[in-house]
Specification:
The protein is of the alpha/beta class. It has 18 helices and 17 strands. The longest helix is centred in the first third of the chain and has 33 residues. It binds acetyl coenzyme *A, the ligand O=CC(=O)O and magnesium ion. Magnesium ion binds next to helix 8.
């Protein structure tokens, strides 16, 4: 995306009720709120602006390299191990020792930076809570700034939430999970903050404000001298990890804290990154606490990377499980790589969530989660993700049964057998069939997710599964791929080809089903039609959009003192 050409809605003048005190070259175009002014202080804005100025050319170059790699994949190349960095892969080095505060990460809960959910997650009994500015959050100005306020209150221990309707006040327990924060990916702009006439980089805004306001309290009260802790998403190459490492060093220096205080786990969730795991850890070796299998974005990335390879069409989304050889190989190599370098190999997210009104279906869902977690712990993962507090006891039990009293398996499960995994293993074509129901489900889920995202909700329960930006991406790119290459729906006996005409019919029928399911009133008030148009455009685009959320972001940017057509 051209950072200088962010679209906004036409201006409607509204009354200005206050303004932020900004340093030279910084413009805050997001609405004023006295609560947000606690975050958007002059000094904090200066800190973010300094990061932006120091790293913007590095980021621009990294994004150019992504475009160049895409060009090569589109001309028939495949990602693979880089011969130039063989010395790193074969070298005998380790990452800095794991801080004691995060040695045991057997269950990590994730969720958006919403006030009530933050309290629930920190109180949930999980070892870690990953507070998400990324896949689980729609990055409206309101959500982002409110999220920063919520995290500041959480780190200070003062966070409360008054649920008046239920007459319940939420507050923190004495024992809470360790907090990790996931900023957005490198590709997303923050169009409510301009620095030297350009939108800021989204992840530097998320990282910068959180670090600036919380590092001192966090280290004193939560990190036992370490921290803050982060998760880093969607990287494609170690040069991007190198930028993060420099950002961390810069922040540590500015704060006057020891190098290596900040720690981060990198999500390996793009296909190119699986060939860069050693290199990523190497760049971050003073700041690393491991890697995580971000399996949903990884599947999305498989389609994206091979968008010009019609011989690599995916089967139905539900069939691309961890049992596929390329997925199993990815998890095995990640464990081997992390344990060889002395850090955690975290498992990923099972998409099942509790099903409240159907005990039988609920048991079946829980069983699937258990099975998935058992696979992870037996393979050697040191911990896993849970999408919902109701899943924590099962995940905990599975990991504890296998690991006993040990906090992790870093030294006990080396997985040397995975050393021989090849490019072929990691790229092996997924097996399975495509069905009309697959096309319908992608469409139904994709449109409903987008409609929720446009109204400010970034993770939603749909058909008893957790859906977020990563899982929704799979629906979008799978439809795009099937349409682009006229895939045959061969799994249900229909043997029809996916064409724009068939897709148009499916969209209309699924819109009817959505309206029946959510009810006329919610449907009328929601942004379903806008989501439908957006989804159709993206699925039929001649060349694949890089990210669902880049296009959709243009629809949620609201500049002050202008108002968007619909308020978030
Ligand atoms: C691919 C990836 O990147 S995965 C990581 C990103 N995705 C996520 O983090 C998804 C996290 N999960 C969620 O957002 C939610 O669980 C959803 C949207 C899937 C379902 O949420 P809901 O429909 O609200 O669930 P439900 O009604 O069962 O919630 C029951 C209670 O659990 C709480 N809860 C549910 N999920 C979470 C969570 N992840 N963290 C904290 N609390 C939670 C709810 O706030 C609610 O609390 P209350 O009883 O005090 O009101
Ligand atoms: O971020 C996690 C994923 O699976 O994607
Ligand atoms: Mg992801």
């Amino acid at each position: 995306m051209d950072l200088g050409t962010q679209k906004t809605y036409p201006a409607l003048v509204s009354k200005r009720i206050g303004s932020y005190d900004v340093p030279e070259g910084v413009e805050v175009r997001g609405g004023y709120d006295p609560e947000f002014a606690r975050i958007l202080t002059r000094d904090a804005l200066q800190f973010v602006a300094d990061l932006q100025r120091e790293f913007r050319n590095h980021i621009r170059y990294a994004m150019e390299c992504r475009r160049e790699a895409k060009r090569q994949y589109n001309e028939g190349a495949s990602p693979g191990f880089d011969p130039a960095t063989l010395y790193i892969r074969e070298g005998d080095w380790t990452c800095a020792p794991v801080p004691p505060a995060v040695a045991d990460r057997r269950v990590e809960i994730t969720g958006p930076v919403e006030r009530k959910m933050i309290i629930n997650a920190l109180n949930s009994g999980a070892k870690v809570f990953m507070a998400d500015f990324e896949d689980a959050l729609s990055p409206s100005w309101e959500n982002l700034m409110r999220g920063q306020v919520n995290l500041k209150d959480a780190v200070e221990g003062t966070i409360t939430f008054d649920d008046k309707a239920r007459n319940r006040v939420y507050k923190l327990n004495d024992q809470v999970a360790k907090l990790f924060v996931r900023p957005r990916g490198w590709h997303l702009p923050e169009s409510h903050i301009f620095i030297d006439g350009e939108p800021a980089t989204g992840c530097l805004v998320d990282f910068g404000f959180y670090f600036y306001h919380n590092y001192a309290t966090f280290r004193k009260t939560r990190g036992a001298g370490f921290g803050p802790f982060f998760y880093l998403p969607k990287m494609e190459h170690s040069r991007e990890a190198k930028i993060w490492n420099s950002v961390f060093e810069r922040a540590e220096k500015r704060a006057g804290i020891e190098k290596g205080s900040i720690r981060a786990t990198v999500l390996v969730e793009t296909l190119p990154a699986v060939f860069q795991m050693d290199e990523i850890l190497y760049e971050l070796r003073d700041h690393s606490v491991g890697l995580n299998c971000g399996r949903w974005d990884y599947i999305f990335s498989y389609v994206k990377t091979f968008q010009a390879h019609p011989d690599r069409l995916l089967p139905d989304r539900v069939q691309v499980s961890m049992a596929q050889h390329f997925m199993k190989s990815y998890s095995d190599l990640l464990i081997r790589t992390c344990h060889r370098r002395g850090v955690h190999a975290m498992g990923g997210m099972a998409a099942q969530i509790p099903i409240r009104d159907d005990p039988e279906a609920n048991n079946a869902a829980l069983e699937l989660v258990r099975k998935d977690k058992l696979r992870e712990v037996k393979a050697g993962h040191d911990g896993t993700w849970a999408a919902h507090p109701g899943l924590i006891p099962a995940c905990n039990e599975v990991f504890t049964n296998q690991m006993g009293g040990a906090p992790n398996q870093i030294d006990t499960t080396k997985r040397e057998d995975a050393a021989g995994l090849t490019e072929e293993d990691l790229l092996q074509r997924p097996r399975g069939v495509r069905t009309m129901e697959g096309l319908r489900l992608n469409t139904r889920v994709g449109i409903q997710y987008l409609a929720a995202w446009l109204t400010g909700t970034g993770s939603v329960p749909l058909y008893s599964l957790m859906e977020d930006a990563a899982t929704a991406e799979i629906s979008r790119v799978q439809n795009w791929q099937w349409l682009k290459y006229g895939a045959e729906l061969d799994g249900d006996g229909t043997r029809v080809k996916v064409t724009p005409c068939l897709f148009g019919r499916v969209v209309e029928e699924e819109m009817g089903r959505i309206e029946r399911e959510v009810g006329k009133e919610k449907f009328r008030k929601g942004r379903y039609n806008e989501a439908r148009k957006m989804f159709i455009r993206q699925c039929l685009a001649p060349s694949l959009d890089d990210f669902l959320t880049l296009d959709a972001y243009n629809h949620i940017v609201v500049h002050h003192p202008t108002n968007a057509p619909s308020k978030l």
